[in-house]
């Protein structure tokens, strides 16, 4: 029977830490978010807005079409030039300290070009090539909010990672790859699995030997409880809606009988990620103040 890694509790703790930091700074960092009119983007936007407001971080409210529109761009209609125009405005505005673009971006948008356009000092998700390179050399001050949230959850267990077998399932640019690098920084022996691993019939074998398992594949309860190594740390990043209910990528009930620590879905990685967006905004503010 495992201990629950309660993301809501950890987010509360982080909020107190960030609140103290903001008071010491005596400043109001400003965050701008480009979101889309899709259900998942809307849910994320609301959580980010409420966290920012509760901390006193500036966030532009819902004003579609306005010069600083930070909310609910049409998924179908938004164009590359409009996204670039919004980002250039935010890049040039010295009062804006952090920029966050919701992922995935619509198909008509060239996501790589957008990543390279964000001022690297304002890049809250660490997607600009300069920030990716900094992460590669273990020198990132701001970076993937989800990956940092996963590391914070693992840190809460107090378990030392050096020499442990870490298995990440998913190799996306905003979750799997960055968390793989952060685990390497801690000297965990890190394997990144993906769709190819599954097609080769090797996923179960990798998961079975994981002391630390990070599941970020976006497939409801795909990882079976019986694959979980006894006394492991299990982080479920997945957010899948099944029959109106949100479930993760792991069979939670069975997995919790075997793991030492496990994150619930919802209430695990999600709330910590939102707070990490706020932490990165403060870091970006400090970076810009020199
Ligand atoms: P993505 O679609 O960009 O990448 C999915 C990855 O999983 C790919 O590497 C793919 O190869 C792999 N994959 C897919 N099916 C697989 C299978 N059957 N076996 C093995 N590997 C498989 O997804 P993403 O953006 O990294 O998000 C992953 C999940 O995490 C989604 O459910 C997403 O909603 C969730 N998410 C949660 C948070 C949070 O804060 N909680 C943040 C970001 C993403």
Could you explain how this protein is built, in words?
- This protein is α/β, with parallel strands linked by helices.
- It has eleven helices and eleven strands.
- It has helices at 7-25, 39-55, 80-92, 111-117, 129-136, 145-155, 176-185, 195-199, 203-208, 252-255, 269-289; strands at residues 3-4, 30-34, 58-59, 98-101, 165-169, 189-193, 212-215, 233-236, 240-242, 245-247, 261-262.
- The longest helix is centred in the C-terminal third of the chain and has 21 residues, at 269-289.
- The radius of gyration is 19 Å and the shape is globular.
- 44% of the residues are buried.
- Nicotinamide-adenine-dinucleotide binds at residues 146, 169-172, 174-176, 193-195, 197-198, 203, 216-219, 222, 237-240, 269-270, 273.
Helices and strands, with pairings:
Elements: E1 3-4, H1 7-25, E2 30-34, H2 39-55, E3 58-59, H3 80-92, E4 98-101, H4 111-117, H5 129-136, H6 145-155, E5 165-169, H7 176-185, E6 189-193, H8 195-199, H9 203-208, E7 212-215, E8 233-236, E9 240-242, E10 245-247, H10 252-255, E11 261-262, H11 269-289
Parallel strand pairs: 1-11, 2-3, 2-4, 5-6, 5-7, 7-8, 8-11
Antiparallel strand pairs: 9-10
